[in-house]
Amino acid sequence: RLNRYQPEFMLTFKPDAQELLKSHWEEIALNKGKIALNPDWDVYQTLEDSGKLKIFTVRDDDKLIGYFVVLVGTGLHYKDHVFAVNDVLYLDQDCRKGRTGLKLIKFSEQCLKDDGVSVLSVNTKVHRPFDSLMEYLGFNLVERVYSKYIGD
Does pTM top 0.85 for this prediction? Predict the structure, then answer.
């Protein structure tokens, strides 16, 4: 049985993504006691409608097992280029052996390239890294981001 890699739209992604999103949040979210998972689906839909959100998935038959979601647009500093920045990237823990994740990223990259994207950026969590995969795929480490919860 072969996995199916494809671009998708919110219409099919949202209902099928609930279980994976919860697993994703449980695995990597910080400040879980203070910040609950609560996606703003209306904003996601607006971004998709305006061409600024792209969703790529991998399915085992019809079961969603992974997703790579990016925001797409021109850069404020480089208006002549289109940039894609990942929003979320996740692969079901039971599907991480083998090349499924690698193929999902490569498939997404090719689709974005075909759409005229110049630069693709992927964020990784320091406490759940997959740097060796990103380096294998030709990505470079270019920035560090620091975070601090400052709410009440």
Answer: yes
